[in-house]
Amino acid sequence: MKGDRQDNAEARERLDRVDGDSMRLTAAEATAFGVAALRTLNYTAEEAQIIADHLIDNALCGYKFAGLPRILAIAESDRTGKTRGPITIAYETPLSASVDGGNNVGYLAAFRGAEIAIEKAKASGFAAVGVYNSYYSGRNAYYAERIARAGFVAIHPSTAIPRVVPMGGARPALGPNPICMAFPSTDNPMIVDMGTAAMMWGEVMLHAHLGKPLPEGVGYDAAGLPTLDASAALGGGVGTFGGYKGYALSIAVQMLGLLAGSGRSGRSGQDFAFLFLAIDPKLLHPDGDFPAQVTQLIERIKATPRQAGVEEIRIPSERAFREREQRRIDGIVIDNKVVESLQAMIDGRA
Hints:
Elements: H1 4-16, E1 22-25, H2 27-39, H3 45-60, H4 69-76, E2 88-93, E3 96-105, H5 106-124, E4 126-135, H6 140-149, E5 153-159, E6 179-183, E7 190-194, H7 201-210, E8 219-220, E9 226-227, H8 230-234, E10 237-238, H9 243-260, E11 273-279, H10 290-302, H11 318-330, E12 332-335, H12 336-346
Parallel strand pairs: 3-4
Antiparallel strand pairs: 1-12, 2-3, 4-11, 5-6, 5-11, 6-7, 8-9, 8-10
């Protein structure tokens, strides 16, 4: 058995290998490229920078599909061409806020929702913020990490339009429905970020764009039949992970989307919505020892006796943080097809 560290290194090498179908960019180059492409979609320089920073952080952390390829998905969304309004607070209390995203992409609306959650948690020790009338928010861990680095425990589920086929169903009825939790420590936050879909929709879209087949047991075509064709799955959907357990968790996250305001879009609750809970650990740990306890728990878990051939017991988010630091040095690899498509946008050829 290969050790986890070796497996991780080999996976990163595959992801970072430059061949005839890809190229390497520094984080700064990729950010500037992303900003230029986003500006063609009528985002201001500030808005484009916020979105691009998120996308490049995703790529740095090893989530290739969630990097610059997502600009293509934003460009193709029917919501991108519709009128955008300001991101406003529709209702609030000292502990909560309901945020109307103004049909802005979630990279902007959810970013503002996380900011509001931090502001309210600093003032009151707790915050519950829901964001609706938005779409495409990216990687939940990006927002949860910001909340945790501000000193708060973060719980961040989100929902989307139906892309996921329920158990026994022949058409989508659930969103990909990720849920994320982040905990401050004396070092990096400990973050658990997982989608309840067998494959996140952005990754399905990237597979289709690149002409790559899906893994077996993931996709369903428009007739509800299993398929390895990513393009066919775009017309159908994907399943949940983990059988009935993943299915049940997906439904629970869908309900939390209702709490965040998904039903206010006129889609019967089957829409994008983002919920942020920010909790000051000092509400329960007035001596401020919670981050140290998180660190100690992590250290105890990592010190567990290992099975033969295992070099290290890893904790969720460790890999992403390590890869982020390494790719800041090495740069990130982008598929040529993605670069060409983005360049066409910039050149006005899209």
